[in-house]
Each structure stands twice: as structure tokens, then as C-alpha cells.
């Protein structure tokens, strides 16, 4: 009899988990690759014309240890108003009103060949490779030179098939040379709708 009561209590919980979509996994979530300047890690695509990220450590004066794996990626902005970003096509579309959450480790390189100022990370969602349909997240200025995890919540106002990770400085006309380091993306996991 106790088993029957236990099963009856367990059935609603099991039914509820059936409605939760499985995680969305990144390709190359730790930006692994051969360290090189002006190189996009496998599984990722550059978005800004004539500018690409760097696979680090070992270039531009960056010798920090990765937070996960062997390498990480560095994105910069320049005083001329240009910046770097990378994108990835998700394994499935995030539908309107769906909510997913992931974490990313961020840091700043203290000696990135003069691109030393702190930046923010912006995360955009899109249905096309590099189009910015919806701003999903903007981090604070990343001033720390040690790795710290940040939680990113993706609430789709439009369908999202691509996520873009973009280096960004302060709003306004002031532009400067800065850097942000990215590593260790966790899978996108479903979060309940508010």
C-alpha cells in the first residue's frame, strides 16, 4: 500500500518534468583551439567585418590561465568605434516566450597590447547569423582580471536561432580600446516562464 501511495504522489512530479525541454548544448563552449591572434574558435563565427577575436593565452600579452580547458577567447573594442563579436547557431530554436539560462566566465586582460580598459559583454538573439534582433543581456563593466561566472537569462520576444557575444563599452560618444575575456559557457537550461 505504501508503494501505491508513493507512486501516486510521484506521478504529478514526473508528468511536470516531461514538459521541460532538454538543455541546448553549445559547440565548443570553452573556446578550445590552437592559440592564435585573429582566429575564431571552431564552432563559432565572427560577425564584424575585418575584425576577429583571438584564441588565448599566448598572444597580445595575455598569459592568464583559462577557467576551463586549455584556451579562451578575447574580444576587443577600439578607439575608432569598431568592436569584435562572435556568434553560434543553436542546435534548435528558442521559441517566443521561452526562457533559458546559462553561465559564462568573464575576466579582463590587464595587458592586452594597449587594449586594457574594461568592457561589457552584450548577448544578442537573432534568427540570422549576425543580425541583432533582441538584446538579451548586458553585463556590468568587467574590471576584474580573475575569472568570475555571470548568469545570462534568455527570454525570447522573437524566435532565436543564433546567439551573438559582443564586446561593448559605455553608452555615448566616448569610445576606447578595451578587452573582455570569455570562457566556460554552460548549456542553456530551460527556466520557468514568469
List the SSEs and their pairings.
Elements: H1 2-18, E1 45-46, E2 54-56, E3 72-77, E4 85-94, E5 99-107, E6 117-118, E7 120-126, E8 134-138, E9 148-155, E10 160-168, E11 178-183, E12 189-190
Parallel strand pairs: 6-11
Antiparallel strand pairs: 1-4, 2-3, 3-11, 4-10, 5-9, 5-11, 5-12, 7-8, 7-10
Can you give a write-up of this model?
Strand 7 (120-126) and strand 8 (134-138) form a beta hairpin. By secondary structure, the protein is mostly beta strands. It is built from one helix and twelve strands. It starts with a helix and ends with a strand. Strands 2, 3, 5, 6, 9, 11 and 12 form a seven-stranded mixed β-sheet that branches. The radius of gyration is 19 Å and the shape is globular.
Give the topology string: H per helix, E per strand. Answer: HEEEEEEEEEEEE
CA(first)-CA(last) distance: 38 Å
Q: Quickly give the structural class.
A: mainly beta
The whole-number mean of residue pLDDT values reads: 88
Number of helices: 1
**Which regions are unreliable across 5 or more consecutive residues at pLDDT < 50?**
none
Helix content, binned percent = under 10%
* Beta strand %: 35-45%
- The assembly state of the depicted protein chains is single chain
Number of strands: 12
Largest sheet: 7 strands, mixed
Shape designation:
globular
Q: What's the Cα radius of gyration?
A: 19 Å
Amino acid at each position: 500500500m505504501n508503494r501505491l501511495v508513493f507512486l501516486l504522489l510521484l506521478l504529478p512530479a514526473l508528468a511536470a518534468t516531461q514538459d521541460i525541454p532538454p538543455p541546448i548544448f553549445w559547440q565548443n563552449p570553452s573556446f578550445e583551439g590552437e592559440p592564435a591572434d585573429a582566429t575564431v574558435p571552431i564552432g563559432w563565427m565572427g560577425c564584424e567585418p575585418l575584425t576577429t577575436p583571438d584564441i588565448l593565452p599566448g598572444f597580445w600579452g595575455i598569459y592568464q590561465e583559462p577557467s576551463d580547458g586549455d584556451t579562451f577567447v578575447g574580444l576587443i573594442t577600439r578607439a575608432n568605434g569598431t568592436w569584435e563579436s562572435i556568434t553560434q547557431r543553436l542546435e534548435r530554436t528558442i521559441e517566443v516566450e521561452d526562457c533559458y539560462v546559462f553561465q559564462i566566465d568573464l575576466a579582463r586582460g590587464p595587458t592586452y597590447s594597449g587594449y586594457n580598459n574594461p568592457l561589457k559583454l552584450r548577448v544578442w538573439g537573432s534568427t540570422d547569423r549576425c543580425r541583432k534582433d533582441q538584446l538579451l543581456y548586458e553585463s556590468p563593466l568587467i574590471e576584474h582580471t580573475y575569472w568570475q561566472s555571470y548568469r545570462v537569462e534568455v527570454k525570447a520576444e522573437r524566435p532565436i536561432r543564433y546567439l551573438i557575444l559582443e564586446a561593448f563599452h559605455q553608452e555615448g560618444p566616448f569610445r576606447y580600446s578595451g578587452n573582455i575575456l570569455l570562457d566556460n559557457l554552460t548549456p542553456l537550461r530551460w527556466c520557468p516562464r514568469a
